[in-house]
Amino acid sequence: MLKAIKDNHAANWSPESWQGKEALQQPYYADLDALADVTGKLKDSTSLVAAEEARRLKKSLAAAAVGDAFLLQAGDCAESFAEFHPQNVRSIFDVIRQMAQVMTATSRIPVIKVGRIAGQFAKPRSDSNETRNGVTLPSYKGDIINGMEFAPETRRPEPQRMLQAYKQCSTTLNLLRGFARETGTAFFTAHEALLLPYEQALTRVDKITGGWYDASAHFLWVGDRTRQIDSAHVEFLRGIQNPIGIKCGPTLAPEELSALLAILNPANEAGRITLISRMGHQKVSDVLPGLIRAVKAEGRIVTWACDPMHGNTTTSSTGYKTREFGHILSEVKKFFAIHHAEGTIPGGVQLELAGRDVTECTGGKFKVTEEKLSQRYQTHCDPRLNASQGLELASLIADELRDHYQTEG
Ligand code: PEP
Ligand code: CO
């Protein structure tokens, strides 16, 4: 019994132990009674995902770590209340499924399908405040925290938003489960574990294994802004048994990564950690090899994935936050080439993608120009690939995958 408890529980950890650490990027809630009321309700609510499903995903990610599968993670930068519609859930599900089919058809490698969906609501921001015409208000941090409209009452963080987000997650998951059943597809959910009171409230003990699971999604990741080794976010993720991701930006030092892996995966369990590098196409060749060598030198099992979006954000001449398809592709290609040179496994990608014909990223076969960005620029945060850009990228990734494994023999 004692041994079982030891195996299933990280030492000195509880769902609320993060509260003893510095938590960056959290909203300021003025009404603490309202916050307690909301988290109490969430604590009593039904789990969004089952621990058994998270374990299944972990097994698949362990396969991706050794090249027997490939992870395709994609979806909104930020989900929103206003854009929620079953048709939008269907279209993102369909695009991810089609992209996976393209990739498997060319490379013969099974693709693990994971949506940035049913929980991808909270956003880290570079500035906690925004000033317009001399008026300063809290920055928009995602619909689970506050509203996008630049008005004092909308920008005020409201705990009740967590309940609306939870409800939308629940409906979205029901839809996804239906689509998955109908198409015979395994489909998982993921989001950044940013808003810690929400994640804590949905964390429960799994009756089968006795381990703690965050029942808000199958896969949770820590963002590039909150991954400090002594951060509240790392403390929270340390104790849950879900598969987890670490965003690795260009400022992450190899020693820091080694320390993170020791904290987050002391038993070196396969499938537990996915490292999501997001360096930008100009920096990836300088920074990624050092991280790969540190991980390799210590014999750490990880699944390497590439987020070619967040290091390639620019502002168009027309004033839109955008990303150029050619830069995204360039980072993906370099990710494959670097892993090929280092003798390691390129195990997946994470993309910001819409199921519809948005105009947020420039380039691609149909040449979205800077002038066209204003036509259907609908994102609540970062620019997403549209469905056609996503499929085009999938077919180019498929070529990379095929070439990588063909030359491996
Ligand atoms: C994101 O994935 O939306 C995000 C904020 O990424 P990062 O933490 O890598 O900047
Ligand atoms: Co983003």
Short description:
With 409 residues, this protein is of the alpha/beta class. It has a single domain, classed as Aldolase class I (TIM Barrel), CATH 3.20.20. Helices cover 40% and strands 15% of the residues.
CATH fold group: TIM Barrel
As a whole number of angstroms, the C-alpha radius of gyration is 20 Å
Ligand list: phosphoenolpyruvate, cobalt (II) ion
Can you tell me the CATH architecture?
Answer: Alpha-Beta Barrel
The count of β-strands is: 14
**SSE topology string:** HHHEHEEEHHEHEEEHEHEHEEEHEH
Question: What is the domain tally?
Answer: 1
Overall, the morphology is globular
* CATH class categorisation: Alpha Beta
Q: Describe the sheet with the most strands.
A: 8 strands, parallel, barrel
Strand order of the biggest β-sheet: 1-2-5-8-9-10-11-14
Q: Roughly what percent helix? A: 25-40%
Descriptive notes:
It contains 12 helices and 14 strands. The chain is an alpha/beta fold and 409 residues long. It has one domain: Aldolase class I (TIM Barrel, Alpha-Beta Barrel). The strands form 4 sheets. Strands 1-2-5-8-9-10-11-14 form an 8-stranded parallel beta barrel, surrounded by 6 helices. It has a two-stranded antiparallel sheet with strand order 3-4. It binds phosphoenolpyruvate (PEP) and cobalt (II) ion. Cobalt (II) ion binds next to loops.
